[in-house]
Amino acid sequence: RPRVLSGIQPTSGSFHLGNYLGAVRQWSALQETHDAFYMVVDLHAITIPKDPQELRDNTRLAAAQLLASGLDPDRCTVFVQSHVPEHTQLSWIMECLTGFGEASRMTQFKDKSSKQGADRTSVGLFTYPVLQIADILLYQANQVPVGEDQRQHVELTRDLALRFNGRYGATFTVPEPYILKETAKIYDLQDPAIKMSKSASTPKGIINLLDEPKVSAKKIKSAVTDTDTVIRFDEDKKPGISNLLTIYSTLTGTGIAELEQKYDGKGYGALKTELSEIVGEWVAPFRARTQEYLADPAALDAVLAKGAEKARAVASETLALAYDRVGFLPAA
Ligand code: ATP
Ligand code: MG
């Protein structure tokens, strides 16, 4: 079975629709066909300051949402990144192989750091793509299912895998990004030029999966569209409407052309009202399942402990190989 690996940050409480449609939905599909590793990336989350208790709570909450999304711990490995120390250990080796210039070209770093100013930007935010390289290579992943915003980081991972293999001999699998075109980028409802984001979207721009259906309905109804009235998929001229159509289409499995026909001659209001209902119906059982998993933290922690054990078995083997290739003297 080919292997996949991916992760999600416990940055804020709820996953949003971009996380789900862009990534997590593919994760549950891939567990059927692949040897799948999915993690809550708490090490990545502290690149921006986090309250310790909130981080702990959000890590469990993220795990509960992964299970509520359909990840089955009997069919895939679900774990917490900090439970597997090999990630930070391999990361150091990768930092020493990554050019300062190439790391500086990561657009996500430029975006996130420009919002905070240089003095408040941590070195960890700068090196986070390198930790991500270690995350992926430790598991010898063939594919990395992510949203479009992560493509550049997976490309960097490929470059570094090739560089390490070239310098030290074949060691790492060179991974491919796995990005579905239709849902690669879900946009912010208030600003359809930027992606929906846990840390950057305004509350009105983001559809949280744990929002009350009333709340998400209100957000969808006030989504920014355009002054035209025709419901048509056109990402350049009608980014807001196209985004709503993408969400509608993927949640219901209806083709875009079919939706354009269905809403021919109808107004934006009708589309928004019906989409609100669809989202409401989708999130209600998701919220209920998440609450069930959260209600039993001991069981949740046991799932994560078992996941960490399975993950470490793979990660420690890869790390030992990498240490040997680099020339570290084995501890006697
Ligand atoms: P942050 O703003 O803190 O970086 P995020 O919203 O980007 O949070 P992550 O935890 O960084 O969420 O990403 C988890 C996964 O969701 C990644 O694979 C990422 O590519 C994907 N993803 C995030 N936002 C979107 C989006 N708007 N559309 C599609 N995929 C997305
Ligand atoms: Mg992100």
TrEMBL record:
Q: Which residues bind L-tryptophan?
A: D135
What is its EC class?
Answer: ligase
Cite a GO CC annotation: cytosol
Free-text function comment from the UniProt entry = Catalyzes the attachment of tryptophan to tRNA(Trp).
Oligomeric and partner information: Homodimer.
Q: Tell me the HAMAP family matching this sequence.
A: Trp_tRNA_synth_B (MF_00140_B)
Can you say what this protein is called?
Answer: Tryptophan--tRNA ligase
Q: Which organism is it from?
A: Streptomyces daliensis
Point out the gene that encodes the protein.
Answer: trpS
